[in-house]
Automatic annotation (TrEMBL):
Protein's name in the database: Adenylate/guanylate cyclase domain-containing protein
Family annotation (Gene3D superfamilies): Nucleotide cyclase
Regions crossing the membrane: 33-51, 57-74, 95-126, 132-151, 158-180
Keywords: Membrane, Transmembrane, Transmembrane helix
InterPro entries in the cross-refs: A/G_cyclase, Adenylyl/Guanylyl_Cyclase_3/4, MASE2, Nucleotide_cyclase
Residues of the Guanylate cyclase domain: 237-372
SMART domains assigned: CYCc
Length: 470
């Protein structure tokens, strides 16, 4: 007289190919048939032993017919659209069960058997709330049936009716418990499979992230950006750089050694770019293209300042790397040259539906590339727009004007000297380079422990030079 308590949704198990497969639990129809068949058996045996009167024929017929009617109401009528159809049908089962108990006059063991089956179903299907509501309906319907039929002189049932009642109730509970166990096992297997697939997806996403700038990858995987062909106009700071002397070096070195050197260079420069929040667009040969202001922006002024700050640190870092390469036997002097422009560009996904590239286009991109090609080794050239945004914090030198395709008038350009805070006697970065000697000092990055070691090394070097003078 109740729904099958196991139909909480389809469970997932694994097939032979380790793919999740939907396995339905014990259906409501089957569970209701088992419960009502058990109740009908109690009624029939009670009538055979003379415990119940002829008025029970109606309930007996109802127990045999109601599961099919409930199935029809749940699947073939407007009730099937209800989100809580199972709970509603279970309430009808509670009313029907109360009618049975009240009609046969509260006979103890058969009544207890029906109550146990109803309580078991209510608790599993809807928890305490469903159980409380079901018990209220059960008590109300039982009271109404008792008021109509009265209470017999004895509430004791014959031995066979008692035994069948207990056996029928135990059978129903065992069958539903078995299906509950199977469903729980299936859910555990599904949980394990889902966890494995989740770990595989995370590992795959981290691998794919190597082919995208972290900002772009993050915006895609968090759902902030759709993967479709779309663009927008935004004001960005665009950076280009390449290595002066790399072509000559490629003729001197073996391809494997050259590849290792280039990858090391890209790795070091990428870390600097990410430190300042730049979106790495692409690597082309020995060139790097980075832009600031998309997908995240801190404002035009801060984006331009971060871009130029990145370029200054790259220039300083290149000097340190050059000294390291020299110690490895690379004698060709490698210098980085950089160009930066700021302006409106078109940014977004370009290409085809099945192959996209997240990049930028526009005349400002061409200007940044042109500035990079005009820069001298170790020089950073910026456009006037960039200069106007950074001039209060970064010292620049006027370099005149150039003519660029796409610009109606000559474009003023400037050379980046250094941070204003690092100019004069208080500057943090010092450099000195001669044949047989190179020194690059960034005092802001030196720890107290390293400071003593550096001072000791400088004192030893100074003593050696003084001895040679003598």
């Amino acid at each position: 007289m109740m729904n099958a308590p196991l139909n909480m949704g389809k469970a997932l198990v694994l097939d032979g190919n380790s793919a999740p497969v939907a396995v339905p639990p014990m259906p409501d129809y089957n569970g209701r048939v088992v419960a009502y068949t058990a109740t009908a058996l109690i009624i029939a045996l009670g009538m055979f032993e003379g415990l119940f009167g002829a008025n029970m024929y109606g309930l007996l017929a109802g127990c045999l017919i109601w599961p099919h009617i409930a199935c029809y109401l749940s699947r073939r009528t407007l009730l099937r659209k209800s989100n809580r159809i199972r709970q509603k049908m279970l309430m009808l089962d509670c009313i029907f069960g109360g009618a049975c108990i009240g009609t046969w006059g509260l006979i103890l063991v058969p009544s207890a058997a029906v109550v146990l089956m109803i309580m078991f179903s209510c608790l599993i299907v809807g928890g305490i709330r469903q159980w409380l509501l079901g018990m209220v309906l059960l008590v109300v319907s039982t009271s109404a049936a008792v008021a109509l039929n009265g209470v017999p002189a004895s509430l004791q049932a014959p031995i066979w009716t008692t035994l069948v009642s207990l056996l029928a109730t135990g059978t129903y509970i065992c069958v539903t418990a078995y299906y509950a166990h199977q469903q729980a096992r299936s859910l555990m297997l599904a949980k394990t499979q889902i966890q494995n697939q989740r770990e595989q997806s995370i590992a795959l996403s981290h691998k794919l992230s190597k082919y995208l700038s972290p900002q772009v990858w993050q915006s895609i995987f968090t759902g902030e950006r759709d993967v479709r062909l779309e663009t927008q106009r935004k004001k960005l700071a665009i950076f280009f750089s390449d290595i002066k002397g790399f072509t000559d070096l490629s003729e001197e070195m073996e391809p494997e050694a050259l590849t290792e050197l280039l990858n090391h260079y890209f790795n070091e420069m990428s870390e600097v770019a990410l430190k300042y929040g730049g979106t790495i667009d692409k690597f082309v040969g020995d060139s790097i293209m980075v832009f600031f202001g998309d997908p995240t922006s801190r404002g035009q002024r801060e984006d331009a300042f971060a871009c130029v700050s990145m370029a200054i640190e790259m220039r300083k870092h290149m000097k340190i790397m050059r000294q390291k390469w020299r110690s490895q036997g690379i004698k060709t002097p490698l210098e980085i040259r950089m160009g930066i422009s700021t302006g409106y560009t078109t940014v977004g996904n370009f290409g085809a539906e099945n192959r996209m590239d997240y990049t930028i286009i526009g005349k400002e991109v061409n200007l940044a590339s042109r500035l990079e090609s005009l820069a001298e080794p170790g020089e950073i050239l910026v456009s006037y727009e960039t200069f106007s945004l950074i001039k209060d914090r970064i010292m620049c030198r006027d370099k005149g004007e150039i003519t660029v395709k796409g610009f109606g008038r000559p474009v003023p350009i400037y050379e980046v000297v250094d941070f204003r805070r690092d100019m004069g006697p208080n500057r943090s970065f010092l450099e000195h380079e001669h044949s047989g000697f190179a020194m690059y000092l960034d005092s802001e990055k030196v720890t107290e422990k390293e400071r003593q070691s550096i001072l000791s090394a400088l004192e030893d070097a100074a003593d050696r030079l003084r001895q040679e003078d003598v």
